[in-house]
Amino acid sequence: MASGSGSLAAMGAAGLFGPGTMTWRINREGVLLLGGGRALVLQVAHPLVAAGVATFSNYREDPWGRLYRTLDTTTAIVFGDSDTSAEASARLERIHSRVRGTTEEPGGRFPAGTPYEANDPELLMWVHATLVDTSITVYDRYVARLSIDERRRYYEEQKLLGEAFGVPRERQPDTYADFNDYMYEMLGGDSIAVTGALRDVVDATLRPPMPFVAKPLVEAMNLATVGMLPAQLRDELGLPWGPNRERLLAASRLMLRGALPLLPRLLREFPPARSADKRVRMAAA
User: Fold this and answer.
1) Residue 251 clears pLDDT 70, i.e. is over it
2) Distance in Å from the first CA to the final CA of the chain
3) At CA 238, angle to CA 233 and CA 244, rounded to 5?
4) Ramachandran region of residue 138, left (φ > 0), alpha (ψ -120 to 50) or beta?
5) What does the pLDDT look like over 188-205, one tens digit per residue?
6) Is the pLDDT at 10 greater than 60, yes or no?
């Protein structure tokens, strides 16, 4: 294969990001699953997102189903080739186009009867922001400390993912500092509120229908979920926390952070990330 055509093939195989990007470095880590509960709770803390989830999701029977579907879509966009990424983005838009209605309960600045649409850029931005913020939080705590420059690079790349989710570039915070301001303002403002739907989601997430033998795993996930929530939201939800739980979380974090480098890639990384590495190598050959 000629070098020029090889380069074009490799670009198509890499998709939106590719080797060497912060996105491929961070989003390949399977430990990001530990942040799934946090991201879900933050998303549903927006009353309009909560209304859509309550009406169009079976979260009570399958509390983690929505999260896994989001993960499947995200990994397809991040690690898929150009066609796969575009198809996943279009599929997400079609799914969201069916999610619309009016709220049944008040929450924050939104009275009951407020209309919502899942394709609203404001709601999409919040959902996207929770994933970006959670990915940074989990990677920084459990894998390796990120420098401010690495965080900035990651955020700049994530604007592409935001566009793939349906958020126009101009509706996204311009810089990483602006993004942090956005998160601070959202979490401290009246766009985030504890509603009945949020309490239902939290209960279903922290108490999923699992066999007894899985209880230790559920407890470990719950510790990470609750511990990584913003303190104000955690308090408003009445989730128990204190010095003993904080120490237990810190100990588990240190243990996992020390164990991760010892794990083979097969156990540590998401399968789509490994497939993407192989696909790019073959395309460049």
Assistant:
1) yes
2) 8
3) 95
4) alpha
5) 999 999 999 999 999 988
6) no
Annotate 98-151 with DSSP letters as a single string: T-EEE-SS-BTTB-TT-EEETT-HHHHHHHHHHHHHHHHHHHHHHT-PPPHHHH
* Residues paired with residue 29 on neighbouring β-strands, in sequence order: 269
The whole-angstrom distance between residue 14's C-alpha and the CA centroid of its chain comes to 21
Please tell me what DSSP assigns to residue 28.
T
Alpha carbon distance 86, 77 (integer Å): 7
Query: If DSSP codes are grouped into helix, strand and coil, which group holds residue 8?
Result: helix
Cα separation, 98 vs 56, in Å, equals 9
Q: Please write down the HEC assignment for all residues of 186-218.
A: HHHCCCCCCCHHHHHHHHHHHCCCCCHHHHHHH
Angle separating helix axes 148-165 and 121-142, nearest 10 degrees: 150
For the cut 60, the answer to whether the pLDDT of residue 138 exceeds it is yes
The alpha-carbon radius of gyration of the chain (Å, integer) is 19
Q: Please list the residues that pair with 159 across neighbouring strands.
A: none
Is the per-residue pLDDT at 92 higher than 50? yes
Answer whether residue 7 shows pLDDT above 80: no
DSSP state of 175: S
Burial 197-211, CB ≥16 within 10 A → b, else e: bbebbbebbbebeee
